[in-house]
Write a structure and sequence with these properties.
The chain is an alpha+beta fold. 28% of the residues lie in helices and 20% in strands. The chain is globular. The N and C termini lie far apart (32 Å). The model has no long low-confidence stretch (mean pLDDT 93).
């Protein structure tokens, strides 16, 4: 059964403490793209969408770049922060390790990591060149991409499930940049790239095709 939007469904080992300034320093470009995506209502919060819960989240890989799968740490916006106009240090989490098959994750930060953190982790596992992942919601792009046969997870791989994370890791899709449709997650898509600008650029280019 699918988990509700914004609700953490994996086993979480989280340590609540302020993130190191070194980790937070990597969030600058994410904040730029967050403002862009919020203006386009690709992430945010609205009473008439997804039961009023926040939707969408952004992440960026952290060094060391040679880390193996399952340990490629990344900075991610904290759970249920998409509706906030701006973020501060308390609104980030550092994901340090995970097990996709075990549906578990280890993190640290004043805020809990996004409920979609394992989906981000799956893409970082798939290619060390992926350095940024954006999870957004767009009904027009979602419908267009499905109709055009873009890379997509199966409808049975619902959000918040181990099946979705494993499917994303194994999915045949362009690397190291592209857009994936989450067919089992209403209106959900993932854009990824070697940088925030590449992931965001892929996403905006896709939107121009759909709208």
């Amino acid at each position: 059964m699918a988990h509700r939007e914004g609700v953490i469904g994996f086993e979480l080992d989280h340590r609540r403490q302020r993130l190191a300034d070194e980790d937070l320093s990597h969030g600058g470009r994410l904040l730029v793209w967050r403002r862009i995506l919020r203006r386009r209502k690709l992430l945010g919060q609205a009473a008439h969408r997804y039961e009023g819960l926040g939707y969408g989240n952004l992440s960026r890989r952290l060094p060391p770049w040679q880390a193996p799968p399952g340990e490629r740490a990344f900075l991610i916006t904290a759970s249920q922060t998409s509706g906030l106009p701006d973020l501060t240090a308390e609104h980030w989490s550092r994901v340090a390790a995970w097990k996709l098959g075990g549906h578990s994750l280890v993190s640290v930060g004043e805020g809990l990591p996004s409920s979609e953190s394992l989906s981000h982790a799956a893409l970082y596992d798939r290619s060390p060149e992926v350095r940024a992942v954006f999870h957004i919601h767009s009904p027009p792009l979602w419908n267009y991409a499905l109709a055009e046969g873009w890379p997509a997870t199966l409808p049975s791989a619902a959000n918040g499930t181990p099946e979705l994370a494993l499917a994303l890791r194994e999915l045949e899709a362009p690397w190291p940049a592209g857009v994936i449709v989450l067919a089992g997650h209403e209106d959900g898509l993932l854009a990824y790239g070697r940088s925030e600008d590449e992931a965001g650029g892929k996403l905006l280019a896709a939107l121009r095709l759909a709208i």
